[in-house]
Specification:
This protein is mainly alpha-helical. It has a two-stranded antiparallel sheet with strand order 1-2. Helix 3 packs parallel to helix 5 and helix 4 packs antiparallel against helix 5. The chain is elongated, with a radius of gyration of 19 Å. It starts with 16 loop residues before the first strand and ends with a helix.
Length: 188
Amino acid sequence: MANRLTQIATRTGDNGTTGLGDNTRVSKDSLRVHAMGDVDELNSQIGVLLCEEMPADVRELLVEVQHQLFNLGGELSIPGFELLKPEAVALLDAALEKYNATLPRLQEFILPAGSRAAALAHVCRTVARRAERAVVALDKAETLNESPRQYLNRLSDLLFVLSRVLNRMNGGDDVYWKSERLARSAAE
């Protein structure tokens, strides 16, 4: 990938197409471009989350995630190329195990709320799920490597766990859903 962006406003996309990393042009509404856009949006949302106060190890992890999402976007932009390695998925698995071990077991669903940082982590989680759906749709049309799909699946899980970690950062807690069914059961 020796090409570097030297000019941003090329006007080559004015006709509704965009260039991929292999110099082919595709429609801006193609499945591949949707997947690339969702991954880019996820990376941007994580950048917003990183503006918040958080433990240094969580910050370091999220910065690494941003680099891996850039690799994922690069892989999506070059059909048949591999940039996101299985080791990146393994890193998320290890982080999930580490942070989940510090949290109490969930007894009820939680709302995407609490601290600002936790709420932003939930936004990132939902964007990760959308990016995952876009990658799955692309994979049905064109064969992709396994790592992109696996990475987004693990990342959305990790962002859920990190939202819980961030809610507890300053003595807070999750915001639990008030289930009508459970309320009735408790009253009986």
